[in-house]
Amino acid sequence: MGSVVSVCDFEVRGLFGKRQVKPEVKIETVEEGEKNPFTLKAIFLGLMSAVGIAICDQYATHVIRGSYMALDFTTPAAIVVLFFFALPVNMLLRLISPRLVLNQSELALIYIMSIIACAISSMGLGAQLIPVIATPLYRAKVNPELGWDATVIPSLPKWLIPNDFQAVRDFFEGYSGVARLRFYEIPYADVWFPVLLAWFPFLITLYFTMICISILLRRQWVEHERLVYPLVHLPLEMCRRGSLDFIAPFFRERLLWLGFFIPFSVSSLIGLNFYFPQVPKIILARSFPLEWFRQLVGITFRLSFPMLGFFYLVNLDVAFSLWFFNLVGLLVRGLLTVYGIEMREDQGTYGAPYVPYKHLGTGALFVLTLLAFWNARGYLIDVIRRSFNLRGIKGAEESYAFLGTILGLLIMSVWLFLSGMPALVIFVFLVYVFVFFIGLVRIVAESGLGEAVAPAIAPPMTVSTLGTSQVGAKGLGSLALTYVWCADIRTNVMASSTHALKIATQLHINRMPLVICMLASVIATMVMSNFVMLYLGYKYGGVNLNQWYLVQGPRVPYDYIHGKLTTMPGVFLPGYWVRLAGAVITLLLAIARRQWMWWPFHPIGFCVSTIWLMDQIWFTCFLAWMIKGLLLRYGGMAVYVRMRPLFLGLVLGQFVCNAVWLIIDAITGKQGNVIFWI
Q1: What is the CA angle 550-554-557, rounded to 5?
Q2: How many CA atoms lie within 13 A of 177 on its CB side?
Q3: How far is the C-alpha of 351 from the C-alpha of 5, rounded, in Å?
Q4: Which residues of 304-332 are buried (b: 16+ CB within 10 A; e: fewer)?
Q5: What is the mean pLDDT of residues 42-58?
Q6: SS3 of residue 437 by DSSP
Q7: Residue 14: which pLDDT band, with cuts at 50, 70 and 90?
Q8: For 143-253, where are the alpha helices, taking DSSP H only?
Q9: Beta-strand relationship, 285-289 and 17-30
Q10: Mind listing the pLDDT tens digit for each residue in 21-47?
Q11: Which end of the chain has fewer CB atoms surrounding its CB within 10 Å, N or C?
Q12: Which of 147-151, 166-170, 295-299, 467-471 has the lowest mean pLDDT?
């Protein structure tokens, strides 16, 4: 199986109606004969990669404290794994025996299992679950001034948190039983296994449901709307077979290695400066308070090499809308701050940094998600009919995915009900959860915004919608525990599986066995990442590890519900109006984009314009938009296509450099050498 890069014009009836799409690069596959990825060799290497990511990511995050490799949708660790197997490993295998060389489908399977692992290994779950469920008992005893004994502890379901204070204290402060900790001395069976086994049915159902939803949306997004999927261009190029059966033609592009060298050299200087201060330090980000707004609001100029590469691949209208709406949001926030106009509500620290923008972005994402389903209504109705055999047609994979989604939502609802969440709260909460997940994945697939979060999170938005009395104390306790998987999350399994299915479609990989491999990667990563988290906590003391994951972050949900249980606020009515405003603006932008070919403002830009990550990377988006626009205007599509390897090299060079310096730091024992964040 091989592929060639071509340029095409096509007309699609996309999310916002029938519209002529500007010429974009599309990767077309060409039959080559080797296309079976499900060999024992590939599955074994995929599982080992998932386990390796779970171990190395946790160690790098908590002990080395260097660059993050599995924090975002960009999944740097998976890119490095693919690079390792596609180039040095395949070259070595070629020397040993040509039959051992990994074909492009096997490489794709390893990469897919790796991106699933990246979505779980640390921020997605591994660094969240144990610290969050262990924090209430530990803090209630160690810091009684917080008052959690009277509010937080009684509201939590006892079967979902550890109840042995000494075991929890040893996790946070280090195991005091022996001088040198051995893994079998950790109290797994008595304390942790019962709790983790209680979480397992919900988590595996959640990830299964995410994969099912990705399958449901695949045909509409990939085949009907033909979204760009910028994040898959680099892995597809690295997998692609050429005339030599052990190396992709992509690796023989000179512009690739030029692009690779730029971030590799710049970031290496940053790393060297950490060891040797006399080496010049390169600053890639600067923030400036704005005098216009009495220095109450600032602006950040940051150059992110990977995001420059990804943004180069997206439609110009999308890139323009991302940075333009962010600056508009900054201007509006500055004016409101200067004139003292504010909206007072405790929504927590996640999402947009400004309360009105949390509600505004939520309304926008609702419309974006509803438009996606409305546009796919004919296809989805047909899937539902086939799922129940209403037409006498045997169900396809989408029908099984639909039934799996319904079953998954039912199981999740029962589990949440048993954890103390009332039925109405479950419904509202799950609606918010999947609007944020689906809307964000749609944005990433179309805009290449690999560094993104939702404008708000589901637990506080549910409380804001229904009021504290409607949710109840037990409901608040249950919502606090959901912060494990739906709060401080900058990546998720739905995004990884959505991009995995795009790759599978491109390379004609059978999707049903692929789902089994993805679930195997989910389970392997869940088990290993939590095991490593426990081991590191007992060995080093959790409070000595990554401060956000172990100290600051786990307190957020309980501080939030403690405040709600203390003040008992009702429904936040202004939030309804602001969400409605966000929904109306997004709908008007969508209608305008459908009606007028010249309309440059894309609704996606408005939906994520207010998130804090967009504040950090708007300038990089502006640079990519300007560079691509100039190349298309003065060089045409041929020059744009010719320059693609350079920008893909920016992504690859940065991520490989991150891995190299993590290895150096692990050998030398240095901590805190962060050469890359976003």
Answers
A1: 175
A2: 15
A3: 37
A4: bbbbbbbbbbbbbbbbbbbbbbbeebbeb
A5: 94
A6: helix
A7: very low
A8: 152-155, 165-173, 193-218, 233-239
A9: unpaired
A10: 444 444 444 344 346 788 899 999 999
A11: C
A12: 295-299
To which residue do tokens 């195991």 refer? 175
Say if residue 345's pLDDT is above 90: no
Average pLDDT value over all residues in the chain: 87
Pair of tokens at residue 281: 């330090």
φ, ψ of residue 286 to 5 degrees: the values are -140, 135
Q: Is residue 129 over pLDDT 60?
A: yes
The pLDDT tens digits for 598-630 are 888 999 989 888 888 888 999 999 999 999 999
DSSP state of 284: -
| DSSP letter (8 states) at residue 293 | G
CA angle 632, 601, 452 (to 5 degrees): 90
**SS3 state of residue 10:** strand
Beta bridge partners of 21: 10
Residues comprising the chain, all counted: 678
pTM for this structure?
0.91
Report the sign of the C-alpha dihedral through residues 598, 599, 600, 603, in that order: negative
- CA distances from residue 616 to 326, 382, 451, 511, 622 in whole angstroms, order as listed: 10, 42, 10, 37, 12
The structure tokens listed for 17 are: 């109606």
The structure tokens 């990977």 sit at: 306
- Give the confidence band of 501 by pLDDT, cuts at 50, 70, 90: very high
Q: Which residues lie below 8 Å from residue 333, measured CB to CB, with a gap of 6+?
A: 297, 354, 357
Q: Determine the Cα–Cα distance for residues 539 and 567; give it in Å rounded to an integer.
A: 39
pLDDT at residue 13, as a whole number: 36
pLDDT band at 581 (very low <50, low <70, confident <90, very high): very high
Q: Which helix (H) or strand (E) holds 513?
A: helix 511-540
Tokens, residue 524: 């392997």
CB 162 within 8 A of CB 168: yes
CB burial of residue 134 (10 Å; 0-12, 13-18, 19+)? buried
Q: What angle do helix axes 458-466 and 423-447 make, rounded to 10 degrees?
A: 130
Read out DSSP for 27-77? EEEE--S------HHHHHHHHHHHHHHHHHHHHIIIII----SSSSTT-HH
Q: H helices within 60-192, ranges in order?
A: 76-84, 90-96, 104-118, 129-142, 152-155, 165-173
Token code pair at residue 504: 């599978």
Phi, psi of 263 (to 5 degrees): -70, -30
Q: Whole-angstrom Cα distance, residue 612 to residue 349?
A: 11
- For the CA atoms of 11, 13, 16, 22, the dihedral, rounded to the nearest 10 degrees, stands at -10
Tokens 């890139």 locate to 319
Cβ atoms 334, 289 nearer than 8 A: no
Query: How far is CA 83 from its chain centroid?
Result: 21
Spatial contact of 189 and 195, defined as CB atoms under 8 Å apart: no
Per residue in 278-294, pLDDT (tens digit) is: 888 888 888 888 877 77
Rounded CA gap, 541 and 216, in Å? 43
Whole-angstrom Cα distance, residue 589 to residue 585? 6
How crowded is the C-beta side of 39, counted as CA atoms within 13 Å? Answer: 18
Banded pLDDT at 394 (limits 50, 70, 90): low
Task: List Cβ neighbours of 109 (8 Å cut-off, separation of 6 or more).
Answer: 37, 38, 42, 43, 46, 509, 514, 517
C-alpha angle 321-641-654 in degrees, rounded to nearest 5? 70
pLDDT class of 8 with cuts at 50, 70, 90: very low
Give the residue from 364, 351, 356 showing the smallest Cα distance to 457. Answer: 351
Structure tokens at 648: 């893909």
**Three-state SS sequence of 614-627:** HHHHHHHHHHHHHH
